[in-house]
Amino acid sequence: MIDEGTPTAFDVVVVGGGPAGLSTALYCTRLGNRTALIDKGGGRAAMMQDVHNVVGIPEAMNGAKLLSTGKEQLEAYGCTVYQDTISSCSRSESDSTAETAEQEQRDTTDDSDSPPPKITLCGTDTDYVAEYVVVATGFTDVRPEPPLPWTGRGLHYCLHCDAYMFTDEPVYVMGTSESAAYVAAIMLNFTVDVDLLTRGEDPTWSGETDTMLSNHPIEIVHEEVTGVENGDDGWLDSMTFEDGTVREYTGGFAVYGSDYNNGLATELGCDLNDDGTVVVDEHGRTSVENVYAVGDLTPGHNQVPIALGEGAKAGISIHWDRREFPRDPGLIDELGTVRKEDVPGIPDELLERAVEYHTYN
């Protein structure tokens, strides 16, 4: 892994090393684009104790191993991986020396088809210049204060990932919002023993939701948590409340919302939804030309398989935009017939890596 370097240019720069970013970078690299992945480390996926709901990945795999394996795969294909944090960005005029002959001809013949200025991303030690930028910076779960119990040892955030773990087990849901109330109700599909903990805060759910709760076997506990008891393996056993009661739980969910890491997307000029997610089309395109967003930063279910799929779709879309062949009929009139020496349309360094990678000989 590269930790620092000099300013350098890429076809595609992906910011964020979670499943969506890794998938995008993988597709971009294998489809012949000079690609860099910039990852500051950490993130929701890195905290997963076990990976759930990913076909072919055993649950003994944890998030950190999943991500590190992904980066190793990227580097094997020729993607450049940086550990860095992006602090700012800007648009700069395209460097004509880095353009292909086709693009230079296109620029001089038709200004309306000129590509947008390239994007410069400023890191700690390196500036990254890219034709396309993919933002995969995700979000941060809002944690209860204090975060009781430990994350991953009885405190969970993803219902669809972890509800199965608590089938027929005592479980809590922590929060005061509409979402918290409905997560508690959804957990009744898995277990009969569900408590909704408000921890001394006033509920903010609606009267209709209050009626829903009162007509389901959910116990609402308003007292604050004063103690947590863990087993020898570090997993939650029980919680003590300020009224002195002790309640046993196998685990539960904190539902306090999400802080979307949309600073870079905002600086690039991307439109945001009211909840802070980035507005994208079905391929991950944002409102800004040549800027994509994928994964938990965009609307939808926050799941590893979905993030992987979004990354794949974005990578294919970028390939469709950037591929040289088949040559556009208008360019054939200007540049002539494609010759054998013009192909294949893949950078030399990636071509060499691909040839080395072949396993069918």
From TrEMBL:
What EC number(s) does the entry state? 1.8.1.9
Task: Identify the Pfam families for this entry.
Answer: Pyr_redox_2 (PF07992)
Any one GO molecular-function label of the UniProt entry:
thioredoxin-disulfide reductase (NADPH) activity
Q: Which InterPro entries match?
A: FAD/NAD-bd_sf, FAD/NAD-binding_dom, Ferredoxin-NADP_redctase_2
User: FAD/NAD(P)-binding domain spans which residues?
Assistant: 10-311
Keyword Flavoprotein assigned to the entry: answer is: yes
Query: What are the record keywords, sorted?
Result: Flavoprotein, Oxidoreductase
| Highest taxon listed in the record's lineage | Archaea
Q: Where is this region: Disordered?
A: 90-119
User: Which major enzyme category is it?
Assistant: oxidoreductase
**Locations of Polar residues compositional bias?**
90-100
List the protein's name. Answer: FAD-dependent pyridine nucleotide-disulfide oxidoreductase
> What gene, per UniProt, encodes this protein?
trxB4
